[in-house]
Amino acid sequence: MMTDQSDKTPMTLHGKQKLDSELKRLMQEERPAVIKAIEEARAHGDISENAEYDAAKERQAMIEGRIGDIQSKIATAEVINPSEIKSKHIVFGATVALEEVESGEKVNYQIVGVDEADVKQGKVSIMSPLARALIGKKVKEVIFVQSPKGDREYEILKIEFK
To answer: What is the arithmetic mean of pLDDT over 1-13?
Structure first.
């Protein structure tokens, strides 16, 4: 069955590598460790009132859930390497230098997938109001963004793909 492009979730190459790394760790380290913990707890006898067994089973459920979640995200990912993008417009993966018009404060943000977003590291989700306002714009354009801290106006200073 072919997957429709609209079923795909954009993700940077870096974001995919992080998920691959976490999946490998969960499957090669966490899963075997929790199976061993369950076996050890089971060896202690009656499992009906065994807190170690219950905790290990709960941990196992969390690990298996996360493995499934990551596998699903990887299966629907459209991996984009920003360094291969050539565009004068802002698109997914772009790193954008902005200047807040009122304060003159300069900020840099990269537009990334939902799971990769980390504002403190300058990564904003493609679903964020800021990213939505930026998509399709060019250098020197001014955008308006509604944020929890109030409406803001930014001038686009620079667009990079790295």
So the answer is: 70
Q: With beta carbons less than 8 A apart as the criterion, state whether 103 and 91 touch.
A: no
Per residue in 67-80, pLDDT tens?
999 999 999 999 99
Question: Do 64 and 11 have their domain in common?
Answer: yes
Rounded to the nearest 5 degrees, what angle is found at the Cα of 46, between the Cα atoms of 43 and 49? 120
At which of 48, 80, 112 does a domain end?
80
CATH code: domain of residue 113: 3.10.50.30
Tell me the whole-structure pTM to 2 decimals.
Answer: 0.78
In degrees and rounded to multiples of 5, residue 43 shows phi and psi of -70, -15
Number of residues that this document lists for the chain:
162
Q: Which domain holds residue 90?
A: 82-160
